[in-house]
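Deliverable D5.2: sample structural annotation.
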Amino acid sequence: MKTDDCYVIAGGGLAGLFAAKTLRASGVKNIYIIEKSDGVDGLLSSRSVSYDGAEYSFDAGTHFILSTNDPDIDALMQQDLDGLDLREYRGSLFEGHAANGRLYQESGCVNLGLFSADVQNAVRAELEALTSSSSSDVSEQGKPSNLFEAFVSRYGRSAAAHIYGSIFEKITGQDAKMVAPEMEVLFVPPRLIIADREESVALKKKPEWDDRIAFADCLDGTSDVVKYYPKTGGIHEWPKVMAANLEREGVQILNNCSIQKVNAEGKVIRSVTLSNGEEIRCDHVVWTLPPALFGFCSDVELPMKRPVMRSVGVVNILTDRRPVERPYWINIYDPDFQTFRVTLYGNFAPRQPHNGVYKITAEIINDGGFEGSEEEQKLVFEELQKLSILPEDAQLLYSEANQKAEGFPVLTPDLLETSRQQVALLEEGFDNLILAGGLPDKGYGQVAAMRTAYFAIQESLKI
């Protein structure tokens, strides 16, 4: 490794920022981060609004900073966390959910008790059969070819058809048989609640049940992941501090531009041309964006598969009545409601409400048809009342809505296979290209982004 090599990082989200931190920790000095938007927060974004003389911060995506349980990665994280005034959470975060028109406040895992007696009886019978069979260990079963099969193998056909199929159709807009099994762990916590607290604790001591069922109360389980949230402001305070520290160390963050052309000689990238016309000569390119996007700015021909994209609408709400007091957030699995996730800031950031005003963010997964009109905002508020998340006499003091610029792709088997082919071609095609984000089979979410970026950089530095 040469510490005077120039690294260009494509993407200024968490993966890009953490790739830069990893390079700086290894002594690399010449680093550029290229980001098409005017910020570097990605999914860790927040918005501040004024109401009645007070400022309120609303998050637009991720809501907590999570440790990774890797001491080296967490040590890098801590460098920026030390500059923030944070609340620290240990154990399980309080979550709830709603299904079949009913609210359950003790867990985000789906509670079978919210469904009809016929569904409950059928699911219990099929789970009994699954756990008594020779292939009762979910981890030892063959990989399912689609999401519906994944649910069948874990919970049985009745749960797949009457519970999880409809939940994921709400999320993806697709039949679960058309969706890749990798989406099973996205958006919905795995495992199903089938009993009260006492029986659930007893059943989970049996390995054949533990992979399939959840504790009836998340307090009965333990989590060794440390979580943080800023005492003032929103989740975006973390990437703001991270970016400021990187810039202080000489990292150049170029906003409002993108890589328009990758200039290579054979298998070696020599420079990149930006959308503003600037050319940066470099020794390495760190790509934290989806691999397919590399094909649009290079001469390499990649197989392409247009993904089905889902949009996320956000409605930020101020109300005069306190919502339910326990959950930090509530997933609304019921397909009869447009809202999917509700974040209740006052339950985990009690200094945030001012003068009896409570703030809520509601997220609506949609096909692009959410316009954020006053009527749509009012409907979201009414849904919170119908589910008893808010009392009936709560007043809507303020609301605003927007459609997030970036949604998410529906993971289908052919999309994932195409992504794997793209990765293989890029890894073979370039000696100094480091793929550090948006990769299939590397997991999803905040922790996966940091781990993928960190280990990709570490591996490249060994060469």
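Annotation notes: The mean pLDDT is 93. DSSP finds twelve helices and 23 strands in the chain.
The annotation will be released with the project's public dataset once the embargo ends.
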